[in-house]
Amino acid sequence: MNFVFISPQFPPHFYLFVQALREQGFRVLLEPHFHAGHITRRHHHRHYQLSREQLLERLGGNLLLHGPTPPAYRGNLGDEMFLVRYTKLADLHQAISWAHTQAR
Predict the structure, then answer these.
(1) Contact 41, 48 (CB under 8 A)
(2) What spatial distance separates the first Cα and last Cα of the chain, rounded to whole Å?
(3) Which top-level group of life is the source organism from (predicted)?
(4) What does the alpha-carbon distance between residue 52 and residue 64 come to, in Å, rounded to a whole number?
(5) Burial, 21: exposed, middle or buried (Cβ in 10 Å; 0-12, 13-18, 19+)?
(6) What pTM did the predictor assign?
(7) In angstroms, rounded to a whole number, what is the distance separating the alpha carbons of residues 19 and 13?
(8) What string of DSSP letters covers 13-39?
(9) What is the pLDDT of residue 11?
């Protein structure tokens, strides 16, 4: 029998619960943990290395949401937002770098 435990925030002490299920003969499947990031870009006087289309292509299936930043937040955050998730933190950092690298 399988037991699927799906949680966006898997508490570290829950391994005891998983261990108890496994001892009872269950096969426990864990949903992978994701690192999420909210990336924004400013367009006024900014020239990015990747165009919007190139960035969207690189983000691919890791992109959950894309659109204009709500007007109340544009002054601080930028004009355009991207919500992404990755299983590896290093990949999230790479995506942020893709979004913010300026053209030379």
Answers:
(1) yes
(2) 57
(3) Bacteria
(4) 15
(5) middle
(6) 0.68
(7) 11
(8) GGHHHHHHHHHTT-EEEEPPP-EEEEE
(9) 63
Distance in angstroms (rounded) separating the CA atoms of residues 45 and 103: 12
Give the 3-state secondary structure of residue 57: helix
d(CA 1, CA 21): 10
**Count of other CB atoms within 10 angstroms of residue 69:** 18
For residue 43, give the 3-state DSSP assignment. coil
| Residue spans of the chain under pLDDT 70 | 1-13, 15, 30-32
User: Where do we find the tokens 């979004």?
Assistant: 99
Over the chain, what is the mean pLDDT?
A: 86
User: Coil, strand, or helix at residue 81?
Assistant: strand
Please list, residue by residue across 37-68, b when 16 or more beta carbons sit within 10 angstroms of its beta carbon and e when fewer do.
Answer: bebbbeeeeeebebeeeebeeebeebbeeeee
Q: Check residue 60 and give left, alpha or beta (phi > 0: left; psi -120 to 50: alpha).
A: left
In this structure, which amino acid lies at residue 88? K
